Structures are given as structure tokens and as C-alpha cells.
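Project standup — Tuesday

K.O.: blocked on the structure for the chain from last sprint. Re-posting the sequence here as requested.
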Amino acid sequence: MSINRVVISGNLTRDAELRQTGSGMPVLGFGIAVNDRHKNTQTGQWEDYANYIDCTMFGSRAEGVARFLTKGTKVTVEGKLRWSQWEKDGQKRSKIEVIVDELDLMSNRGEGQNTNSFAPVSAAPVLDAPSSVYDEDIPF
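H.V.: unblocked you, prediction finished:
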């Protein structure tokens, strides 16, 4: 059994780019800078460094959030990792990206410490089923 889930929180490195596949499906691409720390063995000081992560979101929800995803916006994404490989100028290249299932807009640049100012965007639709649905006999 394998598990492929990742949660990343950081700031957008660039404005999100919305495009479409040949069949018309919206595809949103953006990058997130995720800060990490390590101890410099020579100075003994802790140093911050950034990891840059490419993210991709598909479908109508990608269109809906595209206008909110500008450089500097703090977000949290949850999704799965996808590895892709291609050839450019005769050289093989590859990358790992996050295919976004859920996205939380934590704050817009310039909003200061105001977090959770936007509602999360989820791949799963919210179902508002009446409680009587759950009262029926389940055949197992």
C-alpha cells in the first residue's frame, strides 16, 4: 500500500497562471515558497532557506480561485505529488509538483496577520443530505 498526500503552507512566488487544455479543461499553475531552517555547521547559527514548489489545480474551482492567487498570498494546499519527465533540447528533465485537491487562502499580501480571511476551496463537493437518508437500512 502506498500513500501519496502532502500539505504545504507558504507564500505564492508569482501570480497564478490560468490556461486550458486542448479539450477546454481549466488548469491553474502557481508556485509556493516554503521556508525551512537548518543549522550552519561553520557558524552554529540557524539559517532560513526556501523550497520552491510548483502546484497545479484542475477544473472549474481553478477558475474560481485564480483571481485571488497573486504573488505574496499566503496559502495552504493539500494534494498529491506527481512526477513528470520530458525532453528539452536533447536533455531529459523532470520535476515533482503538487496536484492540488484542497486550497486554503490564509491571507492576502498586505493584510498583515489576518489569517483565515477566505473560506477553503475543496475538491470534494459539500453535500447537504437530509438526516433521513442515513436512517435507512444499510445492506451490509
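K.O.: great, moving the ticket to review. The two ends are 25 Å apart (CA to CA). The domain at 6-135 is CATH 2.40.50.140 (OB fold (Dihydrolipoamide Acetyltransferase, E2P)).
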